[in-house]
Prior knowledge:
The chain is an alpha/beta fold. It has twelve helices and nine strands.
Amino acid sequence: MVAASYSTKWLKVSEPSPYVWHVELSRTPVNAFSSEYWREYGKLFETLAEQPSDIRAVVVSSSIPKLFTAGLDLAAAAGLGEAATDSSQDAARASLAMRKVLLEFQQAIGTPERCPFPVIVAVHGLVVGLGVDLISACDIRYAASNTTFSIKEVDIGLAPDVGTLAYLPKITGNQSLVRELTYTGRNFSVAEADKLGLVSRVVEGGRDEVVTAALNLAKVIASKSPVAVSGAKHLITHSRDHTVAENLLYTGAWNGAALMTEDIVNNLKAMKAKQSPKFAPLKVTSKL
Length: 288
C-alpha cells in the first residue's frame, strides 16, 4: 500500500479506509519523544501535506496499549538543560542557539495544524507533557475514558514552550483551570479535560474503542468535499487568530475563489439522485 511506504522508525502509517490515513506513535516502551522522534513526526506531516495522494483526514494514535505518550524523553530533556546552562559559551550566542532548537521543536509538533486536511487525535492512558502540546495542535481530540493528562513541564523546571500555552487558552474559555493545571503539573482526568474543552468526545473504553471512534469520524469527514473541509479548516484557524471583521473580509476573499468549485454541483446532483457524491482530489498535478 502507498500509505505504508511513509512509515518510519517510530511512526506506522496505514490507510484503513479510502482517503483516511492512520499515523500511530510507536516508540516503545512509552512513546517518549527524543529529538530524533519529534523531528521524524514533523517531517512526516510535512511530507503528507505535500505528497500527491488524496488524503482527506488523518487519525493520530498510539500503538502502545497502555498509553499515548509519556512526553519528552528524559535524555532529551537533560540535553536541553545542559545546553541552557553551558557556561563555556557566550550567553547571548547560547541563547540564540537554544531559541533555534525550540522554534524547530514548535514547528515540528505544530505541523498538523498547517496540513490542508483535518487531523484527529485519539488518546488513551497517559498523555503527559509534550503529549498535551502535540494534541493541542490537532483539529479534533477524542479521548478514551481511561485517559489521564498532565501538563508536566513545571516539575522539570520550565514553562511549557512547545504549544500548550499558545493553544490551551484559545481552545478553552476556562483560564482559571488552565493556569491551575499548568502551575501545579498535577494529573487531571478525562472528565476535567472534557470540562476544559480540551476534548470533544469521551469514548468509553481504551485504545481500541477510541481509535475506532476516531476512524469512523474520519470516514465521515472524508466523504465531504475536500475543498469545503480544507477551506473550513483554514478559515477556522484564521478566525482564532484575527478579529471577527478581519475574518469576514478574509473569508469573502477566500470563498470568492473557492465557490467556483465543481464540488457544489456534484453535491447538488448527488442529493437529487439520492446518491453519495464523488469528489476529485484536492491537489492537482502541475503541468509546469
